[in-house]
Amino acid sequence: MRATDNPLWWRQPTPCERSPALTPELHQKLTAWRRHLHAHPELSLQEKETAAFVQDKLTELGIPFEAGIGGHGIVATLTRGHARSRVGLRADMDALPITEDTGLAYASRTSGVMHACGHDGHTASLLGAAALLAADTSWSGTVDFIFQPAEEGFGGSRAMVAAGLFDRFPMERVFGFHNWPGLAAGTIAVHDGVVMASGGRITITIEGHAGHAGMPHLTRDPVMAAGHLIVALQSVVSRGVDPLDTAVLSLCTIEGGTAPNQIAGRVTIRGTLRYHREAVKHVILDGIERTCAGIATSFGVKVTPEIVMGVGVVINTPDEAALARIAAEKVKAEVRRDLAPSMAGEDFAHYLQQRPGAFVWIGNGELRDGAELHGPRYDFNDAILPVASSWMAEVAKAALASN
Ligand code: NI
Asked: How far is the CA of 117 from the centre of ligand 1 (A)?
């Protein structure tokens, strides 16, 4: 049976029963909000309607907020009691330039744009956490709810920090989560240390001399140089990086030439590099520089590598990872501590460079073909909204109580 015949068939029994703090009514409301966001995805830096929707719901919940922080970013704030400690919870709001193929009733109404990473679910979960904490009288302190734009490689966290996030809202710690297809629905994975990779985008331009395909001696062929360069670059990780370290260098697009009987003048190669340890970054960057220079000399072409680095490795701090586990146990989620870090990136890393914190994965349920993160048949599992919202509310309370 194809997933699209009945999109709900694979879903797990609701973890709602295991999170008594969140009522079925609120679960229903969050599901409706999540599906609205899913049907109306917006690309990074363009989250205008999404931000308006979030502001509307915060107003409905009676929670004050400030908008327009680092673009379409919003920070809502709740203060209760006399405690002076302060904690941040973060969700991301942007969608991807992917064409949805789920067949769902609430599938994207914007062609070529899709919530294929579940940021619709993260946003709804954070609204749920805000609703829970607004109705909960058992805590004291201040909680900031960070609704971040432009996570998908467009520097949303950096923009919010540059706009004074930690000065205007002086939180001491920050927490967040990502849904994780392939991890049982509602299970919470907490890493000790590295959670997700850092990396960079690579663009390599090879310039030669164009000319007649029958007279190659009068040209400098960038296509042939590109072939050698692609093969040579595979040795940067395999021969340069300690086998006990983790790194990947993938070249994913190549463009060049317009006619089958003309040697092209220029080739562009694009790709990505990822690693879990900053020291490895320098090994890879040096390797790329050296290899490009060598190919340029060998083939008499000009090779220019340009690398735009990401924000950094996502690394949980020990005390905050412990708080994340305490909160997971509090919501009666199954806790996994044995999962390897991912080579995917997350700009939550930028917050963790400013403040201690933890970033967890919450299982989205069975991994189906095409329904992995960034896949065309992916969908956030609404059954995990209660555990996600409850975990966020509990981790905030645990952090405030630990000061
Ligand atoms: Ni994501």
From this structure: 5
